[in-house]
Amino acid sequence: MSIRLLAEKDLATVLEDAKFGFGWAITLTDPSGHSDESLVGQSNDISQVIDPETGQLVSGRAAHVTLRISSLTAAGFSDLPRSVSGNSLPWVVKFQDINGNDHTFRVRQSDPDRALGVVRLTLEAYAQ
Amino acid sequence: MIETLINKRDTFELVGEQIASILASESASQMTLAVDDALDPEPWELRVFQDRANVWENFDPETAPIINVWWDQSSFDQTRGDTVDRQCASATFNIDCYGYGVATGNEHGDKLAADSVHRALRLARNILMSAHYTYLGMRGIVWRRWVESVQTFQPAQDNGNVMQVIAGRIQLRVEFNEFSPQVIGQPLEYVHIDVKRAENGQVIAAADFITTP
Predict the structure, then answer these.
(1) Which residues of chain B neighbour A85 with C-beta distances below 8 Å?
(2) Are the beta carbons of A29 and A91 closer than 8 angstroms?
(3) Å between B50 CA and nearest CA of chain A
(4) What is the predicted ipTM?
(5) Would the pLDDT of B140 be above 70?
(6) Are A42 and A49 in contact (CB under 8 A)?
(7) A/B interface, count of CB pairs below 8 Å
């Protein structure tokens, strides 16, 4: 087996292991409403300042999730999640923080790595 | 030495406070007018601050635009004033506006943030340039106020922040008088002079001197 294929299979351990690794339950919903609550990937949600160019900073957050592309396909998603610039509904991502609080985001930017088989989603706040 | 304590505030300080006060009070008034017209008052809400430099942490859960009134500089025109008492200052005040947007449904957070900051800029400019505030309520001190520029700043997207915040700036130029401590004169001699015209047209000045030995 090629080492790249081996690396993709290793994602089950390094990315999706919620028992002994950093895997974290993530819910993904596409614009058509198709949703899967059983996805596991990696997520972060940390403080980050915004520089609005006035010389004064604004307190903000940075949040991302990383998902395995083959798991998305297996879950029935025909496209990769991406930012929606038109008038359709966005791709929505939900996950809990370490203290069990729910957070909902929309996909702001999608950075797929088709060589390794992961997609990293940059998120923004979303009010449903 | 200056004999009196300098226990006053310069005009640039008063003008800065006046600008913030006008914006805050007019925002509240506009919200009341909106309610009177059976409209949602929220679009007329402004949160006004003055000379704040700390990081803004005011956008969760509140979402109304923030305005920070910031005195930038004063310059003095030598042709408008004197070297002793009064100088005309031309000051620039930055009216910095911050808009916040949270995506909802198919509405995008960046567009909502832009709409929010545009609304704040619109309200601030209309209020400050209204006929009601030609002299910012300080006639006799303020000569003129003038919006020199309105601009927004393209937000840097490289960090991909969860929060959508866009800022804009009104540069308001205000011309006003600044005053400085004066010498309090001491009377030395009192002189009384009567000036009369004689029948032949000669001007006659009769002076009384009360001299101190």
Answers:
(1) 108
(2) yes
(3) 13
(4) 0.88
(5) yes
(6) no
(7) 98
More reliable by pLDDT, A93 or B213: A93
pLDDT in tens, A20-65: 999 999 999 999 999 999 999 999 999 988 888 898 899 889 999 9
Please say whether the beta carbons of A47 and A60 come within 8 A: yes
Q: How confident is the model at residue B143 (pLDDT cuts 50, 70, 90)?
A: very high
Burial A46-82 (b: 16+ CB within 10 A, else e): eeebbbbbbebbbbbbbbbbbbbbebbeeeebeebbb
Assess whether pLDDT exceeds 90 at residue B72.
Answer: yes
Closest-CA residue of chain A to B168: A54
A122–B contact, CB cutoff 8 A: yes
Model pLDDT for residues B4-43, shown as the tens digit of each residue: 899 999 999 999 999 999 999 999 999 999 999 999 999 9
- Rounded to a whole number, what is the distance in Å from the CA of A113 to chain B's nearest CA? 18
- Please give, one letter per residue, the 3-state secondary structure of B87-111: EEEEEEEEEEEEEEECEECCECHHH
Nearest-CA distance from A6 to chain B in Å?
31
Beta bridge partners, B142, equal B139, B176
Select the residue of B98, B153, B162 nearest A105 (Cβ to Cβ). B162
A97 contact partners, CB below 8 Å, separation of at least 6: A45, A103
C-alpha B111/C-alpha B106 separation (Å) is 11
Token pair 């030609």 in the structure block, residue? B134
Residues 6+ apart with CB under 8 A from B130: none
- At A100, the pLDDT band (50, 70, 90 cuts) reads very high
